[in-house]
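User: tokens in, sequence out, please.
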């Protein structure tokens, strides 16, 4: 004798999810796994980059951080002068090298299924000005795409 009703609901299998930190750079949205980021703080004044190469220094919470201008590295050029957001933040990376990334928006936490990400088409990877991304997630038609940053590629300092 069964105790389940005849019209039992089928349970959907749950997909494994992970937490990501999402942020905007220029007009695009990017994500990093949450465990790649140690802390988020307001961005102070960056110094030590007189030639505009996208590598500078900032003092935060009593320590010197190397700031890698993620926008410069992803888009292959410095930010246009007209695109100076009023409120900028600094992602202090969990890797022990005192590295930090300046971002253009207040970051948000997102829980995403691993299956939401699809690799980028090879043609896009070759022709697009967007670099150092490994996958893209499109969640709904009314939401912007999220590009998954490849932190290892991004921090290979020899490839600006």
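Assistant: Sequence out:
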């Amino acid at each position: 004798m069964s105790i389940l009703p005849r019209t039992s609901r089928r349970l959907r299998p749950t997909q494994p999810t992970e937490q990501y930190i999402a942020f905007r750079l220029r007009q695009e949205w990017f994500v990093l796994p949450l465990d790649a980021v140690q802390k988020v703080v307001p961005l102070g004044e960056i110094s030590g980059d007189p030639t505009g190469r996208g590598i500078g220094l900032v003092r935060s919470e009593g320590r010197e951080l190397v700031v890698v201008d993620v926008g410069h590295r992803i888009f292959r050029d410095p930010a246009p002068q007209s695109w100076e957001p009023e409120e900028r933040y600094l992602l202090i990376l969990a890797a022990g090298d005192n590295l930090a990334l300046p971002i253009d928006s207040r970051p948000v936490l997102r829980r995403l299924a691993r299956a939401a990400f699809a690799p980028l088409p090879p043609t896009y990877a070759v022709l697009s000005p967007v670099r150092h991304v490994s996958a893209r997630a499109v969640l709904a038609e009314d939401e912007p795409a999220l590009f998954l940053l490849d932190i290892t590629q991004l921090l290979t300092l020899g490839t600006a």
